[in-house]
Amino acid sequence: MEIKDAKFLTCIDTTVHYCSCIPMQNLKTDPVFAALDKIFRRYNKAGFQLKMIKCDRAFIPLTDDMLDNMGVTIGPTVAGDHEPTAEQNNRMLKERVRVALARLPYKVVPKVITECLGR
């Protein structure tokens, strides 16, 4: 997800409806893998075990690493399609950030504030 040039990795769990949003510098494989690892650690700490991730086709390069290192399989969508739950989650997060930015007394909002609101 991208808001005002700030990039985020967003995740939503359909079982407990827990939403995660992690700011990213870029969307290359290593930072995305590190962000997913951070999210998995939160779930494991809470006693949950992740088995499968439903995602867009952009995550296909991570498939082997996720299965080898974390024991999680990736179920990508078909070509040209998006994961509907994730897209709805992204729209909800963007709307919340827009409302929070509109309430600020600034005319121009720095990227740092946008990243903090996205968390």
UniProtKB/TrEMBL annotation:
- SUPFAM superfamilies reported for this sequence: Ribonuclease H-like
What terms describe the molecular function in GO for this protein? nucleic acid binding
Quote the protein name from its UniProt record: Uncharacterized protein
